[in-house]
Design brief:
By secondary structure, the protein is an alpha/beta fold. The protein is built from 17 helices and 17 strands. Helix 14 links the parallel strand 14 and strand 15. The longest helix is centred in the first third of the chain and has 23 residues.
């Protein structure tokens, strides 16, 4: 398309130039709009579980059975009239099957979806760098004070950069850190920089993996896969999942109740591990319970002593297993139907908890925060930050936990209160400050402390109470 044979020089008609530009813009807009529209007959892209018609926590045996059944139906040899379509569908089905029957690939898919950021087409590793947003480099400094004497569970990889096996395990370790962030601390020790530390913990032949918890350490010799490390964590940490035998109400805290079976339910155990992770992430905020529904017909559960107790399963309309139910009180409940990962369960619950964070501006800080003798936790943020949605949920957790100690939490959006944020001279966002109780005015402001830890609500509240 030729709009004009001559360019719009200043001596040409201004109206003619504007007309040419308008026509070009309209043409480009039409082209981009057409390219962005899907075909009317095009279906929404299905995920791998939907392609095979199985649940996200289906067993390998169920996946294989489903694949064989569908593969016989869509095989190109049996669909000569729709050869191209059936070939494409069969290829998609094969790709889904290859991923879901492999434990490591399936774990990657559950975390990242089809786009694994550490794999290029053909399986070549394209990023062999540690993600230090999620991983602690504890090669230098006081390893004993920071890791060994820490109250948190640590997973440590002792490594050397030149060792080939250490390199190939970097993507796996990044995924472990991402999956378990907030539940445990994941770190690396570079034995080229910290030779004495590596020798002390028998890590001269790298890679070596060790757990550190409550002053004790143990060599890990299991499978070097994401699911294996996740299982290690849930078996090591003491989770607050109560085995229920009757209704948990009345209770002041809301409940997250996992309904399962005591036998013949492989997926129950798998899902329960994720619920245990969620219980760690929701520490102090909700109660988490596990209820066994072994006898749905009579509506009772028979315990080891032969005693019968009323079943909660009919009350919550539970007929398939496992089922996760959110019950904030005795009169309301909601079935959890999102992806069965600890983090997604935790986020699902957090957005349903009360929001006690106060929105602040310059006037409120000067009139309510600084003159108050109460302790305040303040967060200054730029809400355009890529990770802010997840940070916001963790900050809300911290605020709820601190409310019990009569400590208030506030939020300042620097896009709306730029003058206040500039006055406090922050170099970057988000910034979390603790303003101690018992002080007012400038004394309170001068005594502020920067929060140095991870964005994990329970950890943030523990730090405040220790200061």
């Amino acid at each position: 398309i030729v709009v004009s044979s001559r360019p719009c020089f200043p001596f040409r008609s201004r109206d003619m130039c504007m007309w040419n530009v308008a026509v070009i813009l309209l043409f480009l807009l039409a082209v981009s709009w057409g390219a962005a529209q899907p075909d009317k007959g095009q279906a929404t892209e299905k995920n791998y579980y939907e392609l095979l018609g199985v649940d996200p926590d289906a067993t390998t045996k169920e996946i294989k059975k489903a694949y064989r059944k569908i593969a016989l139906r869509v095989h190109p040899d049996k669909n000569t009239n729709k050869d191209k379509e059936s070939t494409k569908e069969f290829q998609q089905l094969g790709r889904a099957y290859q991923v879901l029957v492999d434990e490591e690939k399936r774990a990657n898919y559950d975390i990242y979806g089809e786009e694994d950021p550490y794999l290029a087409p053909g399986g070549w590793r394209i990023d062999l760098r540690y993600n230090f947003d999620d991983i602690w480099d504890v090669s230098g400094g006081n390893f004993k004070g920071f890791v060994v004497e820490s109250p948190d569970l640590w997973l440590i990889k002792f490594m050397t950069h030149w060792q080939e096996e250490c390199k190939t395990l970097i993507p796996m370790w990044n995924k472990v850190a991402k999956l378990l962030k907030g539940v445990v601390r994941v770190g690396v020790v570079n034995c080229q920089q910290a030779r004495a530390t590596c020798e002390r913990y028998d890590a001269t032949q790298t890679p070596v993996f060790r757990t550190f918890y409550h002053g004790e350490h143990e060599l890990y010799e299991g499978d070097r896969t994401v699911p294996a490390f996740a299982s290690l964590v849930t078996s090591t940490l003491k989770t607050n999942v109560a085995l229920l035998s009757e209704s948990p109400f009345p209770d002041e805290k809301p409940w997250l109740i996992f309904f399962g079976l005591s036998q013949n339910c492989i997926r129950c155990e798998k899902r329960l591990q994720e619920v245990k992770k969620a219980s760690i992430l929701l520490e102090g905020l909700v109660n988490v319970g596990h209820y066994l529904c072994d006898d749905e017909e009579t509506g009772v559960v028979v315990d080891a002593l032969g005693d019968e107790t009323p079943s909660l399963c009919p009350h919550y309309n539970v007929s398939t297993f496992p089922t996760l139910v959110w019950a904030p009180n005795a009169s309301f409940f909601e079935v959890y139907e999102e992806h069965p990962l600890g983090h997604t369960i935790s986020n699902f619950v957090t957005v349903r908890l009360p929001n006690v964070v106060l929105m602040l501006g310059k006037k409120k800080v000067e009139s309510s925060v600084l003159p108050s003798q109460a302790g305040w936790l303040l967060c200054f943020i730029d809400e355009t930050s890529y990770y802010w949605d997840l940070m916001w949920l963790e900050y809300r957790k911290a605020a709820l936990l601190l409310k019990k100690e009569k400590i208030k939490a506030g939020l300042v959006k620097c896009s709306q209160h730029r003058d206040l944020c500039m006055e406090w001279r922050f170099r970057g966002y988000p910034k979390v400050l603790w303003l101690p109780k018992g002080l007012t005015g400038n004394n309170k402001r001068q005594a502020t402390k920067d929060y140095p830890g991870d964005w994990f609500g329970p950890e943030m509240s523990r730090w405040v109470l220790s200061n």
